[in-house]
Specification:
Rossmann fold, Alpha-Beta Plaits, 8 helices, 4-stranded antiparallel β-sheet, alpha/beta, 279 residues, 13 strands, 7-stranded mixed β-sheet
């Protein structure tokens, strides 16, 4: 029997879990997993409930749950279908390659609709997986004109999420606003360390003992969006700058894949500029 997921966020008060699960009980379904959390700083309640059983009308359940909760509640039954995603790339192949392999073997609960690059270098990689590649060069274009060209491709594909797999162009606030909490990026450090050019040379020069990566939602503020996953691997004095770069590529792949799995399984809530994650 397939399962569904109910996602709830509202102001905290007594009896919320009872109220929510009571609605599900009346509809004759069986709760097989439940996670809840109260963020005391904001007095917000978050709950992810997985259940089995048939519901005649999901909108009815959402309405009944919402009526049992405070007026500021958001209630959503998760769509069990794989998320529709478009991947944006530049020149580096490692994150795209890892993502496409995981996609091929059904590890991400996602359907890649296409790959969009501001350079043509990774088109052969997309072709190996029989995926369309759209080259949208930024050369000779203003940022606004380039983004308009990107949007013509992206909006035609109607994705649920955009994934920046080492896409090296800064997106404007206007572009980001079209996809609120729907753009996921991988960054080559614990934000905001080692910003700018040659991050692994900077790490080498500082004698770091771990290499890290951060996957986060994109907001209008560069590399300051809510963090989904941070991952590290150890390094030591024997690692050259080139070794650190390779280690960085490895950890970027791991962090991005883990973040995408969490988001695409509807395990991530936003709480201001932070995330609540039910792993």
């Amino acid at each position: 029997m397939s399962s569904q997921v109910l996602l709830v966020e509202c102001g905290d008060r007594r009896g919320l879990v009872h109220a929510i699960t009571g609605v599900l009980l009346r509809h004759g379904v069986n709760v097989v997993g439940n996670q809840e959390f109260v963020d005391r700083a904001s007095a917000r309640f978050f709950m992810r409930t997985e259940f089995e059983g048939e519901i005649a009308a999901s909108a009815v359940v959402e309405t009944e749950v919402r009526q049992a909760l405070p007026g500021d509640a958001t209630v959503r039954l998760s769509d069990p279908r794989p998320k529709r995603i478009v991947v944006l790339v530049s020149r580096e192949p490692h994150c795209l390659g890892d993502l496409l392999i995981r996609h091929e073997f059904g590890e991400l609960n996602a359907r890649v609709l296409g790959v969009v690059g501001n350079h043509p270098l990774l088109e052969p990689l997309a072709a190996k997986f029989a995926l369309p590649f759209h080259h949208v060069s930024h050369e000779g274009l203003s940022r606004a004109d380039h983004e308009a060209a990107l949007l013509r491709i992206i909006e035609g594909l109607q994705p649920d999420y955009l994934v920046l797999a080492k896409y090296m162009r800064v997106l404007s606030p206007e572009f980001v606003a079209r996809f609120p909490a729907r753009i996921i990026n991988i960054h080559h450090s614990f934000l905001p360390a080692f910003a700018g050019a040659k991050p692994y040379q900077q790490a080498f020069d500082r004698g770091v003992k771990v290499i890290g990566a951060s996957a986060h939602f994109v907001t209008e503020h560069l590399d300051e969006g809510p963090i989904i996953v941070q991952q590290v691997i150890p390094v030591d004095h024997t690692h050259t700058a080139r070794d650190l770069a390779q280690a960085g590529r490895d950890v970027e792949q791991i962090a991005l894949a883990r973040a995408l799995r969490l988001v695409f399984e509807d395990r991530v809530f936003l709480c201001g500029n932070r995330t609540v994650i039910f792993a």
